[in-house]
Write a structure and sequence with these properties.
The structure is a homotetramer. Chain A has nine helices and seven strands; from the N terminus they run H-H-E-E-E-H-E-H-E-H-H-E-E-H-H-H. Chain A is of the alpha+beta class. A seven-stranded mixed β-sheet of chain A has the order 3-2-1-4-7-6-5, sandwiched between helices.
Chain lengths: 295, 295, 295, 295
């Protein structure tokens, strides 16, 4: 168990108590210079990765399958992700560190996600990306199967999927497979299809999403199926569909900030819904709410 | 924190205990003369605003985003709304007082909702309106995107959306924006589109609803998506749709009262579902049920 | 409070304890001769009516609105129903006794359901009916609005809606109303439309269901929306629909018994789901399960 | 009660404690030689059957109706299944042993499932099958009713339904019935229709699924409705549908193992969701998570 990043024998509650020095984890980027309080900052990031896992489970973006990762704050050539475990069950002690080939950094590793290469390849191809989600969210699936209708933003919260959502079909290059992305060649091909976009659909399988922070990639992943449902139902109503214009998508991206009050509001809400409001680290400029306390 | 309306250091439970003199908060209007017991009456209204926030969250009208407000009982030029916080997490201590330009009345204000101007503009334009909701309820979205099919009442509980639900498109007047209503000019344009109706859809974004009391605007907001779903599915079945007639809509409006046993029944039910049955103030003519007690 | 049927000051738990002599309440009919243990038998029926209320709430057949009633076991000219209260919140102390004009039998009555006449008229018109439900279950609504597609059984659990589900439109005879059935004239017209069937849809409003026992009317009401959904989706798939044949519907009715192990299994399951497994009275021939005990 | 397989008077919690020697229950097949620790192995299988029942309930594959069975590990001519009880409520003490005619092995039997013959006939016809599910999962129903659209795999997790899902109509051979499979003649006809496939749809009723282990048949049954929904929605989007190719289905089957880390991950997740993470037996090569412990 020495390969785990957190103190194994320590209960989650106790670990939470250590976050006595609240630093906004969303300010972390690969370029942030290492400081004296590195350990605290790193622990806060692990904590956020746990929250991200549980939010994605609660919001039904993932079930037993699907995963979320974050680039290592001090080493851009590494990323953090859970061992092979349903996201709903992930705790700090389940986080492992992998390199950009998807290989574990330490020797004694537990079982790993078969598809960890998706994360490795996207982090390798996109220096701007700090966090990655791969999931099978049900309502995104139809757009990978019936490729005539393009998935495009129709609601403001769906704007972050951008002007184009490419569909990657593993069969195009790799023929008949089990559809899983189980090596770097497949993952790199997916990353190439993703290009500079934020989401790529994977035919008959799910999607890969990439963003500049954990909170952004979680938000993107939660609203992606909602945008999909709104579009499916709008098509059922018939007539012309009004998509978000390129100008609107750009305006939303310009106005978006991982640091803003509005962004934090959703993170805080989802964390509480997922039963881990008590794990929230409290940025200095907010009065975070842990709903389990005052009810 | 001195700008908050409730005693900050006081837990919700304790605050509840102060409602020893149950006055039906639904009788409050801007015209009600100020009386000796103003403080109690005011506290009861704050309490109801908290309940409204939690009901809208529980019934999935809002998520981290969306908000509900009520006009100030003693000053029609002010309204009460939560600080920037997910409605699910709102308590009495989170309520702030704003003027009809959307500006905070007190100096030391916490972060505010970006779109508070929606409320300000509707309260300014419509003296008859005592409560406003803005939300993104998922099943209302298709009708803003595929504008060929008008959203109209098809079920009796949907009658309160009225004979016409206008669709406001921010792009018509303001071009490419981030779709949020972030100033009075935009909000006034939305209020103008709303006109004398109870609901306006906002293209690619959500809706704004206005009513004569908190309980009415909550009921309107909960049944709006239900009416939308019934209409979407009726259209899937094909053939002619039977909408409510204008006469039926009028008959329902005539028979409706915020004070009635029937109206209270839903408020009480939703409050219990939202886990805040214990916050209900008990009108003299009812035997309110707090389900958490007798189970 | 003297008009209530149960001991008002007595908690639900305590009242449950009185059911020490378990008699299967499903064997009760209006024709059952009164026996020495009448009180126990009657209490068990009240208990079952409470369970029925909570099941219908849990299974989303009703919300704050909608109600269930049972004919009085000793007087076929009376029926039992809750006072004006959301079914989710109903306890034994909330049950009142009404006559077949929908009027309360005792003087000091609490507020009553506006639409209690639906029950009165159906009990009056149909001596074979022992229990009635009126509700607005969402997925039944489209079939009242888009009347081109008839609601008919397509799944075996939907067989009890019978070969024909008439649609009653209050406007046909009563013009522009608030769509509620608020007097005996309207209710009798609805009962006439129902005829010898088990379910009538009410345009833009909901449905009325009638059956030979509480358990049957609950089962009918829970599977009605499921049958509706299966039919809506089958139509989306296109092509010819295979409905249950008249022979199949008859075969299922012949084989059905309120007393059977199979019927009890669902009642027990739903009661546990609704959090009131502990209220189940235990028929002699069963080993009832209260899930709250062995978990 | 002597016919029950577990110690009747023993609470579930206590029984769990006996699983001190964790053996992976998924390694059990009819061919496994009997060993000294047979009792433990057998108890573990009973425990897994309980978990399977509760998972199917939690994931809405079954409600009060539907059942799951497993072939007896030491006698291929017998199988284990619950007595007539909703799967949500099944405990170890409710498991009975039946022969391949669907008859109980012991004399004093409790009430049995009417449709137990489905299991008997499939176990009799298919020596490779170790576990069977019969259920009415809602979203599989449309494909039995509107037979124009074939149910075929469109998502990778749906691959296990195979290249063909036959639709069995009981009316073809048995005319007007109550649609239930209540004798061996009907069940054998269904098994014949199933042939070498993993799933057969039953018109107007549900489906029967067969697999090489409990975990496989559960996974198959959970993802079957998901695949159905993805296909229904993809058809709504219009245009050509991309199904999984035969080569992809074969590749997935080749790569699948009941023993793998990936398979266990879902089982563990679903068991925790169903509230019985504490019943999981812990295979030697895993660190199983019981979410009820560290939250």
């Amino acid at each position: 168990m020495s390969s785990f990043l957190a103190v194994p024998g320590m209960a989650l509650e106790q670990q939470t108590m250590r976050f006595h020095n609240p630093i906004n984890p969303f300010t972390l980027t690969a370029a942030t210079p290492s400081v004296v309080r590195t350990m605290d900052r790193f622990d806060a990031l692990i904590q956020d990765l746990v929250i991200a896992n549980r939010i994605l489970a609660r919001e039904e973006v993932v079930d037993a399958y699907g995963h979320v990762s974050v680039r290592h704050p001090d080493n851009p050539n590494r990323f953090l992700i859970a061992r092979s475990l349903a996201p709903e069950l992930v705790g700090p002690e389940d986080i492992v560190e992998l390199d950009l080939e998807g290989q574990p950094v330490r020797d004694e590793s537990p079982s790993l996600y078969l598809e960890r290469f998706i994360h490795a390849a996207i982090f390798a191809a996109r220096p701007d990306v700090m966090a990655v989600v791969h999931a099978h969210a049900e309502d995104t699936l139809p757009f990978g199967i019936a490729q005539q209708t393009k998935l495009r933003p129709v609601i403001h919260s769906g704007s972050f999927i951008g002007t184009e959502v490419p569909v990657w079909d593993i069969a195009d290059k790799f023929g008949d497979t089990n559809l899983l992305v189980t090596n770097m060649a497949q993952a790199s091909d997916l990353a190439k299809c993703l290009g500079g976009n934020t989401v790529a659909l994977m035919r008959g399988h799910g999607f890969a999403a990439a963003a500049g922070s954990l909170i952004e990639v979680v938000r993107l992943s939660v609203y992606l199926p909602r945008n999909a449902r709104a579009l499916i139902r709008a098509r059922q109503l018939g007539g012309e569909i009004t998509y978000l214009s390129r100008g609107e998508i750009d305006a939303r991206n310009r106005g978006y900030s991982s640091y803003s009050v509005e962004t934090w509001r959703a993170w805080e809400y989802w964390a509480n819904r997922a039963g881990c409001g008590h794990l929230l680290t409290r940025p200095a400029d907010h009065t975070a709410k842990d709903a389990s306390r005052d009810r």
